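#struct-help
A.M.: can someone run this one for me? Single chain, 397 residues.
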Amino acid sequence: MLALFTGAMVGASLFLMATGALMTFFKSALNLNQAQLGVILSTELIGSVAMTSVAGLLTDRFGDKAVVLWSGMLMGVALIAAAIFANFTWLLACLFVYGIGYAAVTPAGCHAIIFFFKKSARGLAMGVRQCGVPIAGVIGSILLPAVAVRFEYRGALVAAGILTLIACGIASTLYREPTELQGERISIGAMLLEMLEIARMSRLILLTLTSMILAVGQFALIGYLALTFAHAAGYSVALSVALFTISQAAAIVGRLAWGWISDHVFGGNRALPLAVVCVVVALLALAMAGVGPHTAVWMAVLVSAALGFAAEGWIGVSVIGFAEIGGEEHSGSALGVGLTWTLLAAMLAPAIFGAVVDTQGFSMAWRWLALVQALGIVPALLAGSAAFGFLHRKSVA
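D.P.: on it. Structure tokens below:
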């Protein structure tokens, strides 16, 4: 089960995670500025923001197996369609549809992890599954730019679309869904009322606020790590993309490590590790603000790896935290609420970051990002305290 859903995550995330590595191809082919490049990544997330809550409801209603298949088909076809015309508007329209399909990638599969794994192992299990995203970043940042060199960015779109169809199709075909997870046979209206009730929970609100802030850091990395080294440090495109690839490899380790840490160091508390992540990402953003022509390659490697480990490693902890708040029956709904707001922040981050770069430069953009990351410490600590109190009351009862 875990292997299948991780494979689906890899296929679905290939293009999203390689977008940063393809920015130079978009820029040259479509004559775009930095803000427009940020809009490309943001547009991929607009559809996800609009549909994540719906995707969570559909996953609760119809089960993981069906939703993985439907979402995979939608994403794959949208990416292939985006290659038909070399037009910026057409590209954005197709990526919007791709984002609608991507909304279901995280909710589909979370029921199974809650069902098959006990609480002391869920953080690591979700970390394994969420490793699919940085694995996609590593594969995509190597494969898709190589395809784009020969066939331009449109060839990369077709390759990503085909691989998405294959990965999600295999996962849906081979997964044997337990009867208990085949969907809750109640009306969508009743499920919506349950979702609204879940949305008012203070733990979910606080965890969502921290996740939104960390998502800003994650998508600033995805969209602008390579560009920062290319423009601020004067590195070659190949070296800049290689640094991005290193960050994705480190993110794989990070997702496993932070999941294990939340299970064993913080005793299943999902919020307190995120407070630590906020501190680390803020410091690394300040390090990125100092990147310039004098920056040694070995230092760039260290910062890229550390940033990938922290700024992308946290998401599995957040996702399992959302799912646990909803429980086995309503994990999709809780995820839908939390991820909708998290993806909204992720959607806005690249375009805003790019606009700051255009007006104030790369250094100032990373400095602002450091300040934003520091703000996430407060809701994380409050959520951690709320979770501790909840667990204490439960143990006493």
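A.M.: thanks! The chain has one domain: 2-176+194-396.
D.P.: also worth noting: The chain has 15 helices and no strands.
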